């Protein structure tokens, strides 16, 4: 388990950490994933440290959303 320094000299556990990658053929959702992750966080089921969502439309335009709990 990796430890980092907290702001007041305390150590905070950061691991173990898992990487999860999701891919969707037809992403037709509107913030449902963020809402569900928030519910899981509130129930202490998961702790999202850092996330990146990337969407590329048929014209090749990309949309990126970065959510982070890192300081």
Describe the structure in brief.
By secondary structure, the protein is α+β, with helices and mostly antiparallel strands.
Topology, pairings included?
Elements: E1 3-5, E2 11-13, H1 32-42, E3 50-56, E4 62-68
Antiparallel strand pairs: 1-2, 3-4
Structural features:
71 residues; two-stranded antiparallel sheet; two-stranded antiparallel ribbon; 15% helix
Shape: elongated
Number of strands: 4
- SSE string, helix = H, strand = E? EEHEE
Low-confidence stretches: 1-5
Total helical segments? 1
Give the total of domains.
Answer: 1
What does this structure look like?
The chain is of the alpha+beta class and 71 residues long. The chain has one domain (7-68). Residues 1-5 have low confidence and may be disordered. The strands form two sheets. Strands 1-2 form a two-stranded antiparallel ribbon. Strands 3-4 form a two-stranded antiparallel ribbon. The chain contains one helix and four strands, in the order ββαββ.
């Amino acid at each position: 388990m990796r430890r980092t320094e907290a702001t007041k000299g305390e150590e905070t556990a950061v691991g173990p950490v898992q990487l999860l990658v999701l891919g969707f053929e037809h992403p037709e959702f509107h913030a449902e994933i963020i809402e569900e992750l928030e519910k899981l966080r509130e129930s202490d089921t998961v702790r999202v440290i850092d996330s990146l969502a990337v969407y590329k439309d048929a014209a090749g335009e990309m949309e990126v959303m970065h959510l982070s709990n890192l300081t």
